[in-house]
Specification:
The complex is a heterodimer of chains A (296) and B (135).
Chain A lengths: L2 E4 L9 H14 L3 E3 L18 H15 L4 E4 L2 H16 L1 H10 L11 E4 H9 L1 H6 L9 E4 L21 H8 L3 E2 L13 H4 L1 H17 L4 E4 L2 H9 L1 H7 L8 E3 H8 L14 H9 L9
Chain B lengths: L11 H11 L11 H5 L10 H9 L3 H6 L2 H4 L5 H5 L6 H13 L13 H6 L2 H11 L2
Helix pairs in contact in B: 1-7
Classes of the chains: A alpha/beta (296), B mainly alpha (135).
């Protein structure tokens, strides 16, 4: 049976490079995923107010869509979608009173009690596909490329939905190591990029993003790999602001983890949509002879 | 700064509402400061989370309302996973935000965001920003 795939809003527009590279990579790996024919926005952030259940309804509806197709697993790529769906699922599974309230409210939907398993492509690769099997499929390993894994917040916190230890994760380290990269450990790998504060306090987001990039560069990283389109926005798209503002700040190419996966598997660079990354991203891969040419 | 704590200056209604919305027992905080040391936004805050928790325990709603703390918080959950007392401080910050937002007071005005920024921004930035900072 194929695994249900939940893309989320951003992957259909600004984050096409995340989606397209992931789908191409999963095809090479033989991971059979099928996009949910009907899905809605997960709400991006999980409701943190105890008396606010209405914002849990959207992610639960997505989970109901999976369950009604008889599928038991939904795979996500965007880490904010992962977090929101996984937390909503956790609530439906473990909080009897709130589960009843939400099910009663959605009286036109079948009752749901957390039967679906929410996974992210990274933990799926670790737990079900396996690093060894992935390694066998590589065509252009990332040899000689110094990449820092950047986890951000939502893959690791809170503990209930964490893909790894919240303070000492190795998941992305192992992933990048499997792809053949020289993994650069750096102290800011789990620190927040400022997230939605790019709207409320853009200067604060720029400052913390600068610390992340300079922290990685100081440890010798040539690039950063990440999973979240909002982190990509703060660290990648808005890197020009950082480069302008901070003396000594240096260009750091930013990749979605799926783009590195795809090129290592021999997927054509055109399918990875590097035109949506910083220009330095495709250039570094070319310089390292991982791709033969920068796509036009 | 010295604050006078007396029954007159304790806003018990505010304290009760924060507890209710967050579902957290704020009296559990024993002021170790792990949250303040962990906060990535620390330098930008008027009040670090430890101090905010202390003021909250004493119902000092004016000082909390005047601080930018809850509005600079990015809900990264670092304080929450590290709190030795198991307090979800992220939810406390949410409750403080909600008590303002639920009076129909916006922290940011969506119509003031320049069009070119909207064009560039991923949807999750806007959806999450509006969820956290507008009523």
């Amino acid at each position: 049976m194929s695994i249900a795939y939940y893309p989320g809003c951003t992957l259909k527009t600004k984050g096409k490079n995340l989606e397209k590279s992931a789908l191409a990579a999963m095809e090479v790996l033989g991971i059979d995923v099928e996009e949910l024919p009907r899905w809605n926005c997960c709400g991006a952030v999980y409701s943190l107010a105890d008396d606010d259940l209405i914002h849990v309804v959207a992610p639960v509806r997505d989970l109901v869509r999976v369950a009604e197709r008889g599928q038991d697993t939904v795979i996500t790529l965007c880490s904010m979608c992962y977090n929101t769906l996984a937390r909503a699922n956790d609530l439906m599974k473990n909080d009897e009173e709130k589960r009843k309230t939400i099910n009663d409210f959605m009286d036109e939907e079948p009752d749901y009690s957390g039967e679906v398993r929410v996974v992210h492509l990274l933990d799926y690769l670790r737990d079900e596909y396996g690093w060894d099997k992935l390694k066998e499929k590589l065509k252009s390993p990332l040899n000689g490329m110094k990449v820092a894994p950047y986890y951000g917040c939502t893959l690791l916190r809170p503990k209930e939905v964490a893909l790894d230890h919240p303070d000492r994760p190795v998941l992305m380290h192992e992933f990048l190591e499997t792809l053949g990269a020289d993994v650069v450990d750096f102290p800011n790998a789990m620190e927040c990029c400022g997230s939605y504060q790019v709207l409320g306090n853009p200067d604060a987001a720029v400052e913390v993003s600068h610390e992340i990039l300079s922290g990685a560069a100081e440890k010798g990283a040539e690039a950063l790999a990440l999973t979240c389109p909002l982190c990509d926005f703060n660290l990648g798209k808005r890197q020009d602001i950082i480069l302008e503002k901070y003396e000594g700040a240096s260009e750091v190419p930013i990749y979605y983890f799926t783009q590195l996966l795809a090129v290592a598997l021999g997927v054509a660079p055109e399918e990875c949509h590097f035109e949506l990354n910083r220009d330095s991203a495709a250039q570094l891969l070319k310089d390292k002879n991982i791709i033969s040419a920068v796509p036009a | 700064m010295i604050r006078k704590i007396s029954p007159r200056t304790i806003n018990d209604d505010f304290r009760r509402k924060v507890k209710e919305i967050s579902g957290q027992d704020i009296q559990q905080c024993f002021q170790c400061g792990t949250c303040s040391a962990s906060c990535p936004m620390g330098r930008m805050l008027d009040l670090l989370p430890r101090k905010l928790m202390s003021l909250l325990q004493f119902g000092q709603s004016d000082a909390i309302a005047a601080a930018n703390t809850a509005w600079v918080c990015a809900s990264c959950h670092t304080c929450m996973v590290r709190c030795p007392r198991g307090i979800d401080i992220t939810k406390v910050m949410e409750a403080i935000r909600q008590l303002t937002l639920r009076q129909n007071i916006n922290r940011i005005n969506p119509s003031e965001i320049p069009a070119e920024e909207v064009n560039d921004m991923p949807q999750i930035a806007m959806v999450s920003g509006f969820r956290k900072l507008t009523s």
